[in-house]
């Protein structure tokens, strides 16, 4: 792995896991020493993270972790609604009965942890559910964009946005319906529309959380 990519992975990982908080300055000297490089590979990594919308340059401060506000959160959900809807439609032709049974198992586990009010595990299982579908999507560029958008939402949650647990019961019910559509080999259009609305329902829950 080259030093620029190593620096990128180090900084990105710390942003996504909350080690670097929004507004925190990235010290180039420190990163360069950690990865055993000059400033040049670190600057290259910073430029990539700027393109990922995880870092921004501020006057007199340099590279700082981007503060993701409510507007960006909502826009990311809207983007995911479009991307995930299409990815679900593209995936259906490549899914077997075994693949669909995997979705059933994940959703049943989600119902179980919901009764235990284990929201962290619920959130991870929810991600597993959707990516178990997208793993069959032949458009890898589309999946890459979805992954980046999910990571941005993970950063938002790490940064202290309130989780809205009232959405969880409806979410698993909608998963049941999505599984039914996949089993019945419904049209791509109906699958895309349902998957899109599923994500938009999360946005509605966020807007109505107060």
TrEMBL record:
<dbReference type="InterPro" id="IPR000524">
    <property type="entry name" value="Tscrpt_reg_HTH_GntR"/>
</dbReference>
<keyword id="KW-0804">Transcription</keyword>
<dbReference type="GO" id="GO:0003677">
    <property type="term" value="F:DNA binding"/>
</dbReference>
<dbReference type="GO" id="GO:0003700">
    <property type="term" value="F:DNA-binding transcription factor activity"/>
</dbReference>
<protein>
    <submittedName>
        <fullName>Transcriptional regulator, GntR family</fullName>
    </submittedName>
</protein>
<keyword id="KW-0238">DNA-binding</keyword>
<feature type="domain" description="HTH gntR-type">
    <location>
        <begin position="1"/>
        <end position="68"/>
    </location>
</feature>
<dbReference type="Pfam" id="PF07729">
    <property type="entry name" value="FCD"/>
</dbReference>
<dbReference type="InterPro" id="IPR036390">
    <property type="entry name" value="WH_DNA-bd_sf"/>
</dbReference>
<keyword id="KW-0805">Transcription regulation</keyword>
<dbReference type="InterPro" id="IPR036388">
    <property type="entry name" value="WH-like_DNA-bd_sf"/>
</dbReference>
<dbReference type="Pfam" id="PF00392">
    <property type="entry name" value="GntR"/>
</dbReference>
<dbReference type="InterPro" id="IPR011711">
    <property type="entry name" value="GntR_C"/>
</dbReference>
<dbReference type="InterPro" id="IPR008920">
    <property type="entry name" value="TF_FadR/GntR_C"/>
</dbReference>
């Amino acid at each position: 792995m080259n030093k620029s990519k190593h620096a990128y992975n180090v900084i990105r990982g710390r942003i996504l896991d909350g080690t670097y908080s929004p507004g925190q300055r990235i010290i180039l000297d420190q990163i360069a020493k950690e990865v055993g490089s000059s400033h040049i590979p670190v600057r290259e990594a910073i430029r990539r993270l700027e393109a990922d919308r995880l870092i921004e340059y501020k006057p007199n401060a340099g590279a700082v972790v981007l503060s993701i506000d409510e507007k960006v959160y909502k826009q990311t959900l809207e983007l995911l609604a479009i991307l995930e809807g299409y990815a679900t439609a593209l995936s259906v032709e490549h899914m077997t009965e075994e693949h669909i049974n995997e979705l059933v198992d994940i959703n049943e586990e989600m119902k179980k942890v919901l009764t235990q009010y284990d929201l962290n595990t619920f959130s991870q299982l929810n991600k597993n559910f959707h990516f178990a579908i997208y793993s069959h999507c032949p458009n890898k560029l589309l999946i890459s964009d979805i992954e980046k958008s999910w990571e941005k939402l993970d950063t938002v949650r790490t940064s202290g946005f309130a989780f809205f647990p009232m959405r969880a019961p409806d979410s698993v019910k909608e998963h049941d319906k999505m599984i039914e559509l996949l089993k019945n080999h419904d049209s791509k259009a109906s699958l895309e529309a349902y998957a899109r609305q599923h994500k938009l329902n999360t946005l509605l829950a966020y807007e109505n959380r107060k």
